[in-house]
Amino acid sequence: MTTLEEAKRCPRCEEPGEHVAAEDRALRSIRGAKVIKIYCRNQRCKWYNTPWTIQVNSNGTIPLALLNRDKKFPKLPNRGNSVVENLTRQVELETKTGGAEINNPNG
Predict the structure, then answer these.
(1) Tally of domains in the chain
(2) Alpha-carbon span 96 to 93, nearest angstrom
């Protein structure tokens, strides 16, 4: 767990951010919890006027940020060779004498 003062510090410049209470939202998945929005107001920071959110539980605790989670989506297939082969074929067809029009294989 972390404190609100620690969580309110900008992730980039570590200066305290500004809590905009009008943008607070209730968190439906956890009873009594809310999400507050904090803005960096340091004009020298790359995150100037950029918001980040903090979850505050009903008992006032703030859970640790889940920054290093495993990815939830499947890995993309390795299509490197087929892409290169298709692009090479396309360049050959486009630069061949007698026309550069390629028939659409999908109709």
Answers:
(1) 1
(2) 5
For residue 42, the enclosing domain spans 4-56
83, containing H or E segment:
helix 80-95
Is residue 106 included in any domain, yes or no?
no
Candidates 43, 38, 44; CA nearest to 10 is 38
Tokens of 43: 């004009």
The pLDDT tens digits for 28-73 are 878 889 999 999 999 999 999 999 999 999 888 888 777 677 778 8
In a domain, 63, yes or no: no
Tell me if 14 sits within 8 A of 5, measured CB to CB: no
What is the DSSP-derived secondary structure letter of residue 60?
Answer: S
User: What is the Cα–Cα distance from 75 to 81, expressed in whole angstroms?
Assistant: 17
Degrees, nearest 5: CA angle 84-102-82: 15
* Residue 36 resides in a domain: yes
What does the DSSP 8-state code read for residue 65?
P
